[in-house]
Amino acid sequence: MRTKSMLIAVFAVTALLPLTACGGGENPAIGGVGGDSVAGGAGTGDGGPNEGTLDNPTKNGGVSGNAPKDGTAFQKLPKAGTMAAAARFVNGFTRCDPISTTRENGGPSEGPGSAEFGTSHSVTEVGYCGRRNVTTIVMIKDPKVFQAAFKADVDAKKGSGNPNSGIVIGQDFAMGSESSDAMSSLLTPQAGLLMLNCHPEFNPPSGYRKEPALVKGCVLTDYYKD
Asked: Which residues contact 47 (CB under 8 A, 6 or more apart)?
């Protein structure tokens, strides 16, 4: 089972992948990632500490929380625009500071930094944070293409792997971690992200969300079990 292996070896198709949660319940600012630590990528923005906050997510092009109240589950997900904004958002719930374009302990053998998780998945930029438990963030150009490619990867495994796992997504970014605690921290109501699960045997307990994704055969859920 490739539980902690795609998206660093963390966007595991069959089983995605404790960083310390830092203030998810206190609605802190999305800060701590300076512009100098982030390579430019998808979208625009100053890359500085005022690009967006959890209190004012759209400030200076930061993470967008202005989703339509009557929109779909996907339309209500946060949208980052830049790697800096996405990293600050993640850092508001689990430590992700600083963000880097290279993984300190070497590049992943598979995942968004490899051929398998690259342009065919509409991934435009990859960022890494953490040392012992690495968290990976990717920026996504076309979310439907990304979800379709992710489902194709799951289908290729023919039902193997963890049915209760997937990848944590926003509208234009996704994250995975070698820490299951880090993954779970982004699925809380305060964070507002959801997990893309395309496993045919996924069947969460009652009370958990199971919303339609952008591609048939996948759902968006707040249930995750490593």
From this structure: 34, 35, 38, 40, 82, 84
Does residue 98 have a cis bond before it (omega within 30 degrees)? Answer: yes
pLDDT digits (tens, 9 = 90+) for 143-170: 999 999 999 999 998 888 899 999 999 9
* CA max distance for the chain: 45
- CA-nearest of 77, 82, 78, 96 to 31 is 96
Q: Please, what is the Cα angle at 182 between 176 and 188, to 5 degrees?
A: 100
For the entire predicted model, the pTM comes to 0.71
Please give the angle made by the CA atoms of 195, 201 and 205, to the nearest 5 degrees. Answer: 65
What are the E-state strand segments in the chain? Answer: 123-129, 135-140, 167-169, 173-177, 194-197, 211-212, 219-221
Tell me if 82 sits within 8 A of 43, measured CB to CB. yes
- Which phi-psi region, left, alpha or beta, contains residue 132 (left: φ > 0; alpha: ψ -120 to 50)? alpha
Q: Report how far residue 126's alpha carbon sits from residue 34's, in angstroms, rounded to the nearest whole number.
A: 16
